[in-house]
Amino acid sequence: MSGKMAETAGRLLRFDRRARGAGLLLAGIDEAGRGPLAGPLVASAVVLPADAAVAGLAGVDDSKRLSDSSRRRLLPAIMQAATAVGLGWVGNAEIDRLGMAAACRLAFLRAHRRLGMSVDLSLVDGLPVSGLPFRCRFVVRGDSSSLSIACASVVAKVTRDDYMVRMDGIFPGYGFASHKGYGTSGHMEALRRLGPTPIHRRSFAPLRDRQLELEL
């Protein structure tokens, strides 16, 4: 474990210990997939034991700061260390129907429910989301502040990425395995040639604004 990894893990763990206070059972919640033009929104909730060891989770950080190989290396360690992990999926059709704010709330709720256990407090990454029926504290940039949220960030990101890789085999030609549904130039060009798939978000521009049809 490098000194920098140890320092980061220790800082994230200290945040959780302060938030936990006197014996509270804590969950960290984060999501992946707000911005893509295709695929689901995936949230993860992770409960770490109060005595979680820094050494076992060395290298865990905000998933956006980590390479794909680093995230995949860390995932088994997170799953082994965690007391419980829950996943909440919201599909593209639900996102189109509900809007992103409601979709995030639903993904967080589903992940929390699928922990299979009760927790006293959930640390949720980002700005406040109204309507969550459990005690929570919202932490801006929480995935770079809290070890529990950072672990949830990695779990959600790898889970969603794996789904998009599978979709690449079902819908070839779009490049889902590389861009994971984000609006890259290659993805946009494939949409112009092939049109949208059943996993595309029709409420997202340019699909919503028919820009692709106008450019054909």
Blueprint of the fold:
Blueprint: H1 3-20, E1 26-32, E2 41-47, H2 68-81, E3 84-90, H3 92-98, H4 100-113, E4 121-125, E5 136-139, H5 147-170, H6 176-179, H7 185-194, H8 211-215
Parallel strand pairs: 1-4, 4-5
Antiparallel strand pairs: 1-2, 2-3
Helix pairs in contact: 2-5, 3-4
Folded structure, characterized:
- With 216 residues, the protein is α/β, with parallel strands linked by helices.
- The chain has one domain (3-160): Ribonuclease H-like superfamily/Ribonuclease H (Nucleotidyltransferase, domain 5, 2-Layer Sandwich), CATH 3.30.420.10.
- The chain has eight helices and five strands.
- It has helices at 3-20, 68-81, 92-98, 100-113, 147-170, 176-179, 185-194, 211-215; strands spanning 26-32, 41-47, 84-90, 121-125, 136-139.
- A hairpin with an 8-residue loop joins strand 1 (26-32) and strand 2 (41-47).
Estimate what percentage of residues fall within beta strands: 5-15%
CATH architecture term: 2-Layer Sandwich
Unreliable stretches: none
CATH class: Alpha Beta
Number of helices: 8
In brief:
With 216 residues, the chain is of the alpha/beta class. The protein has helices at 3-20, 68-81, 92-98, 100-113, 147-170, 176-179, 185-194, 211-215; strands at residues 26-32, 41-47, 84-90, 121-125, 136-139.
Features:
216 residues; alpha/beta; Nucleotidyltransferase, domain 5; 5-stranded mixed β-sheet; 5 strands
